From TrEMBL:
InterPro entries: Uncharacterised_TMEM39. One of its GO terms (cellular component) is endoplasmic reticulum membrane. Pfam families: Tmp39. GO terms for biological process: negative regulation of autophagosome assembly; negative regulation of autophagosome maturation. This is Transmembrane protein 39A. The chain crosses the membrane at residues 66-87, 99-116, 196-215, 227-244. It is a multi-pass membrane protein. Belongs to the TMEM39 family. Its main location: membrane.
Length: 266
């Protein structure tokens, strides 16, 4: 009786195998994708700055997730197997290091395209357009031009001159509600005021990886190197195709000037 109860309990707490856990993780990931924040085009400068702060925190969280998961994948796929190699066995150290770097870069680009889709990048671009940017000017410049005292409750138009903390600033963006001395606001505007900047960077990285892998494939002499490189190339072809497709579509969409972001400078 006791043995039957123990066997029943052990069957209930039996650990799942790796494939079952992997399947559950993939199913949960596809059924519950990462939600994208909404953009409501706020009319208040305080609401715009608060939205930017929330988007900065969300973007940093996504980048940390990309870095962690890409390093995690490279560690288990390319580095950990080397730790179990016996001292009597030989393996190509240069090829192993190259394979480790390629796996990490490929995982980084794939995760970035998944966690930073075009819709999310467009959201960051619109928020950066609302935020604006200030350019610090030297003392004595624009001395004859009209200058204003910066106010946090004002949406400043492009080209206006304001003073804050004894410094002179010039409005750069079409609408400007950023704090002139806040470096994080200037960094946010620099990264996202051009909607295709991040996509172009990913295309450059992925294109460089594909070209290098094609070169390595042509000069490889061992069958295992050729097979490994060919399998990785098939994945990279799809990622590069997806990036180029998004670049062409978004490039045509953003080619039409849209100067009205739902704000009025006053």
């Amino acid at each position: 009786m006791v043995e039957d109860g123990a066997s029943a309990v052990s069957s209930l707490v039996k650990p799942k195998d790796f494939l079952s856990l992997l399947w559950e993780s993939l199913r949960e990931q596809f059924n519950n994708p990462t939600s994208i924040p909404t953009h409501s085009c706020p009319l208040s400068p305080d609401l715009i700055r608060n939205e930017v702060e929330c988007l900065k925190a969300d973007f940093n969280r996504r980048i940390k997730e990309v870095l962690f998961n890409s390093l995690f994948s490279a560690y288990y796929v390319a580095f950990l197997p080397l730790c179990f190699v016996k001292s009597t066995q030989y393996y190509d150290m240069r090829w192993s290091c190259e394979h480790l770097i390629m796996v990490w870069i490929n995982a980084f680009v794939m995760l970035t395209t998944q966690l930073l889709p075009p819709k999310y990048c467009d959201l960051l671009h619109r928020s950066a357009a609302h935020l604006g940017k200030w350019q610090k000017l030297e003392h004595g410049s624009y001395s004859n031009a009209p200058q204003h005292i910066w106010s946090e409750n004002t949406i400043w138009p492009q080209g206006v001159l304001v003073r804050r903390s004894r410094c002179l600033y010039k409005a750069v963006g079409p609408y400007n509600v950023a704090v002139p001395s806040d470096v994080s606001h200037a960094r946010f505007y620099f990264l996202f005021h051009r909607p295709l900047r991040l996509l172009n960077l990913l295309i450059l990285i992925e294109g460089s990886v594909v070209c290098y892998q094609l070169y390595s494939l042509l000069r490889s002499e061992k069958w295992n190197h050729t097979l490994s490189m060919a399998l990785i190339l098939f994945c990279n072809y799809y990622v590069l195709f997806k990036l180029l497709r998004d670049r062409i579509v978004l490039g045509r969409a953003y080619s039409y000037p849209l100067n009205n972001y739902g704000l009025k400078a006053h």
